[in-house]
Amino acid sequence: MLLQSIMKSKETAREMRYAKFLDGYSPVFSQFGENIYTSDVVQMCIDAIATECSKLTPKHIRTDNDNMQITVKGSLNRLFKFAPNELMTTRDFIEKIIWLLYMNYNCFIYPVYRIKYNEKNIGTKEYVAFYPLNPTGVTFLQDATGKLFTDMVFANGDKFTLAYSDIIHLRKKFSVNNIMGGGADGQPDNQALLKVLQINDTVLQGLEKAIKTSLSIRGILKINTMLDDEKQQAERQRFENAIASGKTGILPMDVKGEYIDLKVDPKLIDKETLEFLENKVLRYYGVSVPIISGDFTDEQYQAFYEKTLEPLIISLGQAFSKTIFTPREIDVGNEIAFYPQMLLFTNTKNKIAVADILGNRGALTNNELLQLFGYPPYEGGHVRNMSLNYIDVTLANDYQMKRAGTRRKEDNAGEEE
Q1: InterPro entries given for it (predicted)?
Q2: Sign of CA dihedral 161, 89, 53, 366
């Protein structure tokens, strides 16, 4: 694979030792836990979050001294627009990193770049690809200067040592551990959730067994004579044939056989208990039933966005910007922003409201307004139109003062007359 050859070329041959952290924990993190993901409720929750996040639009922007943002032309926006690597579209890429984040509570992304020199021999980074990584083990090392490295082991046995500053690291539930998300050992801390899932699984198994019991043994055929095994088998087959041919519901029997009916009355779990268990899992992930079913109101989606999606969007932008740009590049306004406009316009009513507010003020071009409603652009549609009912804030004071002066003159003229 291309990624394998690139990562091998980045390995360093310097002397390393385990990184030291103040909490005293060993900086070695083993295979991440996956046992909760056998639950269909858990998978539906993560899928709902990952699917919504896949609608985000990542962009490299720069904010100037006047607080104006511009989209920067370059390798980053070229990759973010359609395909961050040769295996994934942008939507696939974002969905993949959200799944990895929720499965492992940590997600590592490796940006591949080349140093490109201009005529003044000044080098700049030209990005080639972004790869989500799924290591089975991660060890943090330090060299003699204190620089931090990650020693990653993958499922096929490959091992790579990479500078931690070159890796985009997303974390979930970043709490007791100094560098990894999850619990103290850098793994998903799912103990509280596992208890609920185990109870839910026991309930579902009980339902399955109750249904099977109610549909299987319905009665006992008592044979009132002493028969050997072959004759018992023949008598049972004769009884089954009689059942199959009994179209009237009346089963003919002779004096040798007696059918004893079993009253099967399986006890099922009530609806409230099942909903209680499922809702505990849904609340754990910040997802509601209407979000999963797609039958949500604006208020329900807004709550889902603010509680669950917005923190992820902020984390994505900050983690990418921190790794991709140098402190100097950040100082002059460079950043990676994940725009959620595709998430916020959930229905036609909202789109009309946005078009009315932003379009009337000249904030959107005609083509951007068409794109909002799913229509293609047209030639010359880059123009901005605005309503004359609005005025530049810098001109409003002069306008009002002039109006006030005109009224005074009119009043004075009236008094003189």
Answers
A1: Phage/GTA_portal
A2: positive
What is the model's pLDDT at position 124? 86
Backbone torsions φ then ψ of 166, nearest 5 degrees: -90, 0
3-state secondary structure 38-79: HCHHHHHHHHHHHHHHCCCEEEEEEECCCCCEEECCCHHHHH
Lowest mean pLDDT, pick from 169-173, 216-220, 308-312, 401-405:
216-220
Mind giving me the DSSP string for 94-143?
A: HHHHHHHHHHHSEEEEEEEEEEEE-TT--EEEEEEEEEEE--SEEEEEE-
Residue 250 — very low, low, confident or very high, per pLDDT cuts 50/70/90? very low
All structural domains of the chain with their residue ranges: 2-188+286-328, 223-263, 347-417
> What number of helices (H) and strands (E) belong to the chain?
15, 15
Which pLDDT band, with edges at 50, 70 and 90, does 385 fall under? confident
Residue in 198, 123, 149 with CA at minimum distance from that of residue 27: 149
Percent of the chain exceeding pLDDT 90 equals 36
Least confident segment among 100-104, 325-329, 355-359, 389-393: 389-393
Give CA–CA dist 307/48, Å, rounded.
14
Angle, CA of 173, 175 and 179, to the nearest 5°? 95
How far, in Å, CA of 113 to CA of 160, rounded? 17
Q: Does 249 score more than 80 pLDDT?
A: no
CA 6 – CA 162 distance, rounded (Å): 11
Q: CA-to-CA distance for 207 and 188, rounded, in angstroms? A: 30
Residues facing 111 on adjacent strands = 130
CA distance linking residue 417 with residue 415, whole number of Å: 5
Q: How many angstroms separate the CA atoms of 362 and 355, rounded?
A: 10
What's the longest Cα–Cα distance across the chain?
A: 133
Identify which of 34, 52, 167, 158 has the alpha carbon closest to the alpha carbon of residue 107: 167
Predicted local distance difference test score (pLDDT) of residue 259: 59
